[in-house]
Design the sequence.
């Protein structure tokens, strides 16, 4: 029988555990977890995986996510599910186990962490994924697969032959999760970024579900201005979307996710750090670099920074 491929998962939180549970049905999956959470006497980790139809117990081998050991224990495929602000450091800590052939897939929302990792490892095959899958982790022992979605995968690192992306996508598709290859993953990441810029900070400031934004004066009076700024930021990055197109997209996502508590509001409610610096913060840094003024985005960024 052919040997199963080994996949290392860095960041066994909500989304990482969902992919780990799904991929482990056909692959050898190893969780890389913070060293202070690894029990030397217990190199396995279990969690309850609650999917739409059933609850199962998933038990997977785990290793500390920091390494000083070269040569042995090299990583072939690394899927990264840390929050955007933790990603660069988490990948750096694994450096001794990463070779120029290690392929790395980044699942972070927002923008900036992808560039940080490609700058760190300019010669590696690096890929980004943009996903609408939904998972949450109410406590350390339970992962809820909250909403089925779709994932797009594309190359962002050193130029790769098409067969590399094909082979990686068939490996990830063995999870059973819906996966589509795209030659233009940056555009997908940018559209998701624009949506997150135009929904997440408002929900955090107004403490409401996505669907409750429409009709609130703060949102209604500033969303058009914000979409103009986002359209300008996208243009600088080579992506043409008019402000009207962006606003229509934002309203459509709000309507389709009306009952959602946005990831930023979930973080605020849980007292966790938000990803604001990689969402509206990324737009502000782009505006700063190009000496442009994007006052609506800046105001949202400053308000979220000041309050949380
Ligand atoms: N959840 C979802 O449905 C979706 C999430 N995303 C994106 O995916 C990313 C992950 O989100 P999510 O899973 O919700 O976040 P979580 O906070 O649930 O998971 C992140 C995990 O990374 C771990 N971590 C941080 N640093 C390290 C490290 N150095 N070594 C090992 N583990 C580390 C954290 O550990 P600890 O808990 O100990 O801090 C945590 O378990 C985010 O960028 C998010 O925006 C995108 C779409 C959907
Ligand atoms: C699309 C949206 C806004 C859905 O809640 C999201 O991605 C998030 O909450 O981060």
Sequence:
């Amino acid at each position: 029988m052919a040997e199963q491929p080994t996949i290392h998962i860095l960041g066994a939180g909500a989304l990482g555990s969902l992919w780990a549970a799904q991929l482990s049905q056909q692959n050898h999956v190893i969780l890389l977890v913070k060293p202070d959470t690894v029990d030397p006497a217990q190199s396995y980790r279990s969690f309850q995986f609650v999917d739409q139809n059933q609850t199962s117990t998933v038990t997977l081998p785990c290793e500390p996510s920091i390494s000083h050991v070269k040569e042995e224990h090299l990583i072939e495929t690394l899927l990264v599910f840390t929050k955007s602000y933790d990603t660069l450091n988490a990948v750096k800590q694994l450096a001794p186990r990463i070779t120029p052939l290690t392929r790395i897939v980044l699942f972070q929302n927002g923008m900036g962490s992808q560039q940080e990792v490609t700058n760190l490892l300019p010669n590696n095959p690096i890929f980004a994924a943009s996903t609408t899958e939904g998972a949450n982790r109410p406590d350390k022992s339970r992962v809820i697969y909250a909403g089925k979605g779709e994932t797009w995968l594309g190359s962002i690192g050193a130029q790769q032959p098409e067969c590399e992306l094909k082979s990686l996508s068939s490996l990830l598709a063995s999870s059973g999760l819906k996966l589509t290859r795209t030659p233009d993953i940056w555009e997908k990441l940018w559209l998701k970024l624009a949506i997150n810029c135009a929904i997440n900070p408002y929900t955090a400031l107004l403490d409401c579900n996505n669907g409750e934004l429409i009709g609130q004066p703060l949102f209604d009076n500033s969303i058009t201005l914000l979409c103009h700024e986002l359209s300008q930021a996208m243009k600088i990055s080579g992506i043409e979307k008019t402000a009207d197109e962006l606003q229509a997209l934002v309203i459509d996502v709000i309507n389709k996710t009306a009952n959602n508590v946005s990831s930023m509001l979930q973080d605020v409610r849980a007292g966790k750090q938000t990803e604001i610096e990689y969402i509206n913060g990324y737009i502000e840094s782009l505006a700063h670099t190009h000496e442009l003024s994007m006052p609506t985005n800046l105001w949202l960024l400053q308000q979220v920074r000041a309050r949380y």
Summary: Residues 10-16, 32-34, 65, 81-84, 86, 90, 93, 107-109, 131, 133-135, 137, 263, 275 surround NDP (ligand 1) (CB under 6 Å). Residues 70 and 96 are 5 Å apart (CA to CA). The first strand starts at residue 6 and ends at 10.
